[in-house]
Amino acid sequence: MLALAVLASTLAASCPTSLANGLDTPTSARQLITVEAKVARTTYAELRTWRKRGPCWVAVAGPYTVRLGRSGLSSNRREGDGTTPTGTYRIGRTMYGNEPNPGVRFAYRRLRCGDWWDEDPRSPTYNSFQHVACGTAPPFAGGSEGMWQQPLPYPFLAVIEYNMRPVVPGRGSGIFLHAQTGGPTIGCISLRKPELRAVLRWLHPAGAPVIAIGTRKQLRG
What is the pTM of this model? Predict the structure, then answer.
């Protein structure tokens, strides 16, 4: 096993210099999204996509300009603070949207009345998708969001699995890759709708995709 690890490290060292090839990513990941900001206190960043070829990451598309949370980046996000969390996270197994499936290869749920994201730190289902009967008040409160009521940011979206393994009350919830609305987000990452569609269609469950978020120093740290 040690010999295999040394061989893998040697092969990786021969990869071309790039942001992606300098990251610590899960060995299972074959697809990668990087979101790189110049500084932590900004609401703008650049998104690129990468795929694994042998031991190396090779560029696929981008850079695309994305918007971040209104309070910039944070390595210690708290519920409602307006920051986008730094770190590397899996892409959720289900994508959602108010519009028909745009051609994604993940499971897709067309949003409808009663579809919520629970953002109440006191709730036992905090930071998860929940459906309640249409017209019925949900059993959770806080900043919980009726996703079907947000057609502009959520024509389609991917879930970024921040604070999900495990879920820690108050660490933040509902971090998505969604469509831009003309300004910063409250913690999500937003792309122009055509670019969002292209990225979501490119992602594949078999690629075990992950997203890495931060400044270059944070990403390499």
Answer: 0.93
